Amino acid sequence: MKTSKTIRLQLQIQKIIFIxxxxxxxxxxxxxxxxxxxxxxxxxxxxxxxxxSSIDLLATMxxxxxxxxxxxxxxxxKTAIEEILNRYKREKNNFNFKLINxxxxxxxxxxxxxxxYGQIVIxxxxxxxxVSSLSEATLSSALQRLSFSGNRSAVFIEGHGERxxxxxxxxxxxxxxxxxxAKGIISSSHNLLKAPLADNTDVLVIASPEKPLLxxxxxxxxxxxxxxxxxxxxxxxxxxxxxxxxLSELAQLLNIxxxxxxxxxxxxxxxxxxxxxxxxxxxxxxxxxxxxxxxLSYNTLFPVSRGITIEDNDEWKSTVxxxxxxxxxxxTKSLINELVFDSNSGDLAGPMPIVIALERTLNxxxxxxxxxxxxxxxxxxxxxLSNSYIGVGANLNLGLGIIDWLNGDDDLISIDIKNAxxxxxxxxxxxxxxxxxxxxxxxxxxxxxxxxxxxxxxRKR
Length: 461
Fold this sequence. Notes:
The protein contains 11 helices and 18 strands. It is of the alpha/beta class. The chain has 3 domains: about 45-145, Glutaredoxin (3-Layer(aba) Sandwich); about 150-410, Class I glutamine amidotransferase (GATase) domain (Rossmann fold); about 425-455.
């Protein structure tokens, strides 16, 4: 077929126009991909997107969210973290995150109170929270805690030599309450002689009073308990189990009993390994399954503690949170002499419960609250949250977990674990045979037939 110069020119112009249009389309697609993002999650269970409950939560949070992730420069780890956080970014435009190397950005790490690699600082409306693992459950739960419009409270009883929540002494709790403030929990002191407890008291804290409480004060505490109020009660050794500085009535109300004496553990090898100087400093290495302990992965330390026994009762559901090791015991004699277990002197063999959790279902006619349950923590030691020991082991995490549980924060958001049934391909022998026959025989034979057919077709031209 012969073509004239005019036709050839027209064909050249068409080619040029086609190339120009193609380049324009490619450019427009590149621009659109930068400005707009469309993704579809076709995995079973939608495991590459956040759950609807997390999406609903983000929809209620109008202000910006900032997430600072403190990790070393590891490209693989960065990719995995960005993948998780981008799921939130896609649902909330003002969800911002940074991956920060704390070895380089030392000042920012100190400002965020980061102490180790892998910590994630989440900020919202001037409040912040630090979590140590990155998953939808931990991230969404932290976001919901930070999204509270009102602050929760922890009210510390004062006037009897208790630990001061804002005190700077080694025995006080200022470092612990500073962490609570960062989580939106306001700590305050309250003297029961001046006024009764407010009805909206979220958590009442009794931090080992050194002097007896008066009858009227006990009545205020009893009313708080009977009306469904939550309580953290810590009681150091030194007072008899019959007196408890006037709080024996409270122990009867809760059906518990504090053991006389001091819990000791004379395992010298363990003390040497952990760097513990005194047998009365009790390490807790293992924890019972509970919402408080689910994220504790290392030991806690209780400097001077007493054991707790739980009386049989159908009203309260009790769980041991922390207890001493089996070789420990409750020593009723002086710690100056050589420590030897002697049951004839009143010593009780371990393991000894040191922290227990009590929970009961509330009746509908409770005056105080419409909460479904009431929660109480009883501890035989108050030193583990003091300024001297709050930074030891997992003491801080245990303390924060206790307050979170008492506030009901463990129930804030429930994230279902998304199964991945489509990540495994299981084939029987027949299916494998069919696939092998198709790939190794039918497909090569088909390609060979097509090639021969094209070759013969061209020869006939």
